[in-house]
Each structure stands twice: as structure tokens, then as C-alpha cells.
Design a protein that fits this description.
Strand content: 5-15%
Strand order of the largest sheet: 1-3-2
Number of helices: 5
Structural class: mainly alpha
Largest sheet: 3 strands, antiparallel
Radius of gyration: 17 Å
Shape: elongated
Distance between the termini: 38 Å
Helix content: 55-70%
């Protein structure tokens, strides 16, 4: 099966840069607009799904654990999104990570690691766990929660940036 082959170290570096950039922006605070809220999670989730599609040796056990892990990741991301501070700044919605957000992030990492160990012990193949999918779905769950909270706050989202 042909296609683009990306060096795993390069892909890991790109993912790390995206995650760090998102974390820094959200730690310092940023305006909330739908495009910025969902673009990074969509890219990471897409990369994770593409890496799964390329695997031809996935078993039913693998798929069961992948689906359960996807639900867990999105739910833990939503939990983290519930801790993000939302404020009105200049008439538009802003978000900022708090200490509780980082505590939730640590708990999320511990829970996800435990889930992954259990999944492998229960028969999931070690190479059937795309990290990009886990990170993307976690950020997607967070974004959905922040988006929902923002919509119910009555504060308008920031307009999309034009470049």
C-alpha cells in the first residue's frame, strides 16, 4: 500500500511542537474562536486515524480497546475543559488554563497510562495505540467542553483571525 511515509521522530517532534504551542497559548490566555478551538485537535485526530487506517493487522481486541480509549480520552479532555477559566475580555470570550487544569492534565495522563497498560495486558497489541489519536481526542473533548461552556456563557466568541 503506497502513501506518504513520515519519519516517526519528525512526526513526534511536530506533535510535541503543536501541543507545547497550544499549552503556552492557553496558559497565558487567548481569545476563543471556533477555528482555533478545533484546528489542532482535528489535525492530531486526523493523523491518528490515518495511522490506524494504514495498519492491516488490527484485531477485534485492538479495535475494542481503541474505541474504549477514544471515549476515555474525549471524556478526560472534557473534564479538563471544565477547569479552563473563561472570561469576558474586551467583549469577547477568552480562555486560560488554571492550576486545576494542570492537575486535571496530570490525572488524565496517569489514567490514560493505566488504561494503556491494562489494554496491553488484556490483549491489545502495543503498536495499535496511535499517540496522535489519543492526544487529538483529548484536546477535542476539551474543545467541545470549552465551546459548550462558551456558548452558554452569553459571551460572544472572538472573530476568526485574518492574516
Amino acid at each position: 500500500m503506497g502513501g506518504i511515509c513520515v519519519n516517526p521522530w519528525l512526526l513526534t517532534a511536530i506533535i510535541a511542537v503543536v501541543v507545547i504551542a497550544v499549552m503556552i497559548k492557553r496558559l497565558t490566555g487567548e481569545p476563543v474562536n471556533a477555528k482555533d478551538l478545533f484546528i489542532a485537535p482535528a489535525i492530531l485526530t486526523g493523523i491518528g486515524i490515518l495511522s490506524l487506517v494504514k495498519k492491516t493487522d488490527l484485531t477485534g481486541t485492538d479495535l475494542t480497546w481503541i474505541i474504549a480509549g477514544a471515549v476515555l480520552g474525549a471524556a478526560l479532555g472534557a473534564l479538563r475543559g471544565a477547569t479552563v477559566q473563561l472570561v469576558d475580555k474586551g467583549g469577547v470570550l477568552w480562555q486560560r488554563y488554571t492550576g486545576r487544569t494542570f492537575l486535571t492534565l496530570i490525572g488524565t495522563l496517569v489514567a490514560t497510562a493505566g488504561f494503556n497498560v491494562l489494554a496491553v495486558k488484556m490483549g491489545m497489541h502495543e503498536n495499535a495505540r496511535p499517540l496522535q489519536l489519543s492526544i487529538g481526542l483529548s484536546f477535542l473533548g476539551e474543545s467541545l467542553m470549552v465551546g459548550h461552556r462558551g456558548m452558554t456563557s452569553g459571551i460572544p466568541f472572538a472573530p476568526a483571525r485574518t492574516r
